[in-house]
Write a structure and sequence with these properties.
Length: 309
């Protein structure tokens, strides 16, 4: 459909959980998190395992390489969201991040990093996790939405996004930080930036109304459109259905936008038409995973590294 873009990786890392459940340590500041009283914990875990399996298969079918790891422990209920603890970058760079919740810090895995070193050209790994000792958090590409084309890191302020840690990351990885206040319709801070926005190659999906400061809102709009992107402005209701939690990827037939089926149902026809001008929609069924307050984008850590072979 379209040529490869540095914004849209060809491969992702995913974690298949065996004991998934919404994390009680994160529900206080994650208003997207919900409880399911109709199923047992075991039933929820079994369904989450199946949803990740089917999602990985669907990605592979469109030509996206999936590095699928198993999580068989009971201590990491949010391990299905690996994009929060590491990210990869062109030129062979990896970042490892400080996490807000103590039980999420256990998600970091040496075997994932070693696989990346073996399969891809990795020059260095910069580990920011020591900042946890100072009470600083920066939860990866959940906290930041990265524009790899314009080298901008967008971030909504929250206790998952410390500005000192972000400045350090941006200095090391050559991104310009753009930080803003963002809240839901009840005035509650939005815990992760990737819930309210997605930056693709030719379009950007963002809930501009979450940014209360009108000057900052216009500045964010201007920066997103300065290289010709079209804006898809999402409503509060649409982000509540995870419409902003999507990831553009490069498949064998061109770019695809991976998002949940719930998110796709929330989009209006004219918004879908904008996306389909440059990417094929790939809806994935992940309703059980969404109980934890994240969706498809959170489930995938994009690999922006050069393969060794």
């Amino acid at each position: 459909m379209t040529s490869f873009s540095v914004q849209a990786p060809r491969a992702v890392v995913m974690i298949r959980p065996h004991h998934f459940h919404p994390n009680p340590e994160t529900e206080q500041d994650n208003v997207f998190q919900t409880r399911d009283g109709t199923r047992t914990i075991s039933e929820i875990a079994t369904q989450a395992h199946a949803e990740v399996t089917r999602a990985a298969e669907a990605l592979e079918q469109v030509g996206v390489k999936v590095h699928l790891f198993e999580d068989e422990t009971k201590e990491t209920p949010d391990s299905v969201f690996p994009n929060n603890w590491f990210s990869t970058h062109a030129g062979g760079h990896i970042a490892i991040y400080p996490m807000f919740s103590p039980n999420r810090r256990r998600e970091r895995r040496g075997d994932v990093i070693e696989m990346l070193k073996h399969a891809y050209r990795v020059q260095d790994v910069i580990d920011y996790s020591g900042l946890e000792q100072d009470g600083l958090s920066l939860e990866g590409t959940g906290a930041m939405v990265l524009d790899h084309i314009s080298r901008i890191a967008y971030a909504a302020k929250s206790n998952r996004t410390n500005e000192v840690a972000m400045e350090r990351f941006c200095t090391h990885f050559n991104f310009e930080p753009i930080v803003f206040d963002a809240a839901d319709e009840a005035g509650r801070l939005i815990y992760h930036t990737n819930v309210l926005m997605c930056v693709g190659t030719s379009f950007a999906m963002i809930s501009l109304e979450t940014i209360s400061n009108l000057h900052r809102r216009q500045e964010v709009r201007n920066r997103l459109t300065e290289n010709g992107r079209e804006i898809i402005d999402l409503s509060f209701n649409q982000i509540n259905d995870f419409a902003g939690n999507a990831l553009e990827l490069s498949g064998s037939q061109g770019r695809v936008l991976a998002l949940s089926r719930r998110a796709l149902k929330a989009l209006r026809p004219e918004q879908i038409r904008i996306i389909e001008r440059s990417a094929t929609l790939l809806p994935l069924d992940v309703p059980t995973i969404e109980l934890a307050g994240g969706s498809v984008r959170c489930m995938m850590a994009g690999v922006h590294l050069t393969p060794r072979f």
